[in-house]
Amino acid sequence: MKKRNCFLVFAILLVSLGAGQEVLADCKTGSNSEKPASSTAANKNRLVKTTKSHYYIDVHDAYKEIKDNPKAVVLETSYGKKTSYAKGHLPRAVQMDTLEVETEENDWNILDFDSCKKAFLEKGVTKDTPLLVYSEDPLSSARIAFVAYWLGVKDVKIVDGGLNAWKNEKLTLQKGTLKPKAQKNFGRSKPAHPEDLISTSADLVKYEKDHPKLVIASTRSWDEFVGNISGYSYIKDTGEVKGAKYAKVSKTSSDVSYLMNSDLTMTNPEKTLKYWNKNGITPSKEVAFYCGTGWRACPAFFIAKDNGYKKARIFDGGWYEWDRAHEKNPSEFPVQKGDPANKKTFQIITKPQMSY
Question: Catalytic: 291?
């Protein structure tokens, strides 16, 4: 399967980061005490967003929202349904499988508006629903949150640190499987943010022609970026989209390590923003973030949105789809390999690398 191996790698990474035994190995990858646990990252390094204009919410603020707002919907997200959900989840949380909004048949791209709208309505979510999203990892929750944002959910927040942070703070967990209260009317007939989702490689080519100053930012690891590895068992070719800039977000194909603390909360983005600005990924420009199939791009997208990147986008097809398009039409979808700063080894490839 597309995601499962990726998440097994992520689970190993969590242990190496010191996230502890609370994080389950199949990550795809209580009391009412509200005193911070010793394992929580120092506050100065935390990215804690609590206002209506931001996308990440601290676990204590999330706890208060769940307790005080009966209209709020809580989604626990994962690739595939997890049996661990019933053993302990956030209060009132219902499960949402990422396969409800993306499929292998669709090249792992986000499905059309009507399909995604239906999936959220089945969970009880409309455009006016206060929505809290969390997971055992920082990827699937950001993926689902982005789809909700794109659809037009006005108030969507990612619980910072997810289930791991919730457990670290010893906040109340609920057991058992809950059934969502489905809604019938989403309140929109088209996406609220269509401009923020560039779905396919063909869409990116067209978009770049119409927006020649577009910055294409790769959230893939350095080894993926320079073409040493593809990063995926199901992608044989290596390289990047022509013109891509390295955004320094991940260390492997299954993490966003440069954006995270060891407890899986999002870190203060100061270093990331400084790196982006130094490398031409600036708030004044239109920036399309991408990775292999869209997951790592989502946390970067929200960090950008939170920090003045008004024209942040996601190129959803990523390297997976660009590579396939390149094989069919290499001149229309050229590939770059190597470090762009090294003129001796950097190359642009306009011939097929392999056949599928």
Answer: yes
Q: Residue 256's CB: how many other CB atoms inside 10 A? A: 27
For every residue of 171-237, DSSP letters joined together read ---B-SPPPP---S--S-SS-S-GGGEE-SHHHHHHHHHH-TT-EEEE-S-HHHHTTS--SSTT---
The answer on 109 and 233 residing in a single domain is no
Task: List the one residue out of 80, 109, 113 whose CA is nearest residue 95.
Answer: 80
Q: Do 335 and 348 touch, CB atoms closer than 8 A?
A: yes
For residue 169, what are the CA distances in angstroms to 13, 34, 42, 78, 263? 21, 6, 13, 22, 11
Decide if pLDDT at 40 tops 60.
Answer: no
Mean pLDDT of the chain: 88
Contacts of 105 (CB under 8 A, 6+ apart): none
Q: Identify the residue whose tokens are 């005490």.
A: 33
Three-state DSSP state, 17: helix
Domain span at residue 275 reads 194-349
Asked if 203 and 286 sit in the same domain, the reply is yes
From CA 267, how far away is CA 15, in angstroms rounded? 18
Q: How many domains are contained in the chain?
A: 2
- Say whether both 154 and 215 belong to one domain: no
| Termini Cα distance of the chain | 17
Residue 236: which CATH number? 3.40.250.10
311 pLDDT above the threshold of 90: yes
Here the tokens at position 312 are 């942040």
Per residue in 121-153, pLDDT (tens digit) is: 999 999 999 999 999 988 999 999 999 999 999
Q: Would 179 be classed as within a structural domain?
A: no
The whole-angstrom separation of Cα 324 and Cα 190 is 29
Q: Which two tokens stand for residue 190?
A: 């088209």
Whether 189 is covered by a domain: the verdict is no
* Catalytic residue chosen out of the listed positions 6, 27, 116, 291: 291
- HSE, side-chain direction, 13 A CA sphere, residue 40: 24
> What pTM did the predictor assign?
0.88
Structure tokens at 337: 């390999």
131, 157 in Cβ contact below 8 A?
A: yes
Per-residue pLDDT reduced to its tens digit, 261-304 = 999 999 999 999 999 999 999 999 999 999 999 999 999 999 99
